[in-house]
Amino acid sequence: QVQLVESGGGLVQPGGSLQLSCVNSRSIFDIYMAWYRQAPGKQREFVAVIRSGGSTNYADSVKGRFTISRDTAKNTVYLRMNALKPDDTAVYYCSDLSNNAWGQGTQVTVSS
């Protein structure tokens, strides 16, 4: 059974940065990994994906501010978030799309 463990969330001021990490219990070399988020009262939404070949895509709302990357040796996917806005406040979830697995989520709060 695939297990995903996220970390790196927290409280940050507007304009600040955070980096989230997601460790997968299996190899990520040949799979698609993604980040989603869910704000209070809203549906879960796509944030970013990194494909098995390394290509990436982003939601329009985070393009140019967020970067998804991976370290296949560590089975870890990252989400670097810069220029954070209050609207980025949400629980962020890591997903192994190839195995339909989800992490437990990590809270990101952007507030002054």
Write the topology of this structure:
Layout: E1 4-7, E2 10-12, E3 18-24, E4 33-38, E5 45-50, E6 56-58, E7 66-71, E8 76-81, E9 90-96, E10 101-102, E11 106-110
Parallel strand pairs: 2-11
Antiparallel strand pairs: 1-3, 3-8, 4-5, 4-9, 5-6, 7-8, 9-10, 9-11
Q: Could you walk me through the main structural features you see in this protein, from its secondary elements to its overall organization?
A:
This protein has 112 residues and is mainly beta. The chain has no helices and 11 strands. Strands 2, 4, 5, 6, 9, 10 and 11 form a 7-stranded mixed sheet that branches. A 4-stranded antiparallel sheet has the order 1-3-8-7, with no helix packed on it. The radius of gyration is 13 Å and the shape is globular. The protein starts with a strand and ends with a strand. The relative contact order is 0.33. The model has no long low-confidence stretch (mean pLDDT 96).
Task: Jot down its keywords.
four-stranded antiparallel sheet, seven-stranded mixed sheet, 112 residues, 49% strand, mainly beta
Which outline best applies? globular
Report the structural category.
mainly beta
Roughly what percent helix?
A: under 10%
Chain-averaged pLDDT:
96
> Which H/E pattern describes the elements?
EEEEEEEEEEE
Q: What is Rg?
A: 13 Å
Count of DSSP strands:
11
Q: Could you give the distance between the termini? A: 40 Å
Strand content: over 45%
Described by strand count, sense and barrel closure, the largest sheet is: 7 strands, mixed
What is the count of helical runs?
A: 0
The low-pLDDT segments are none
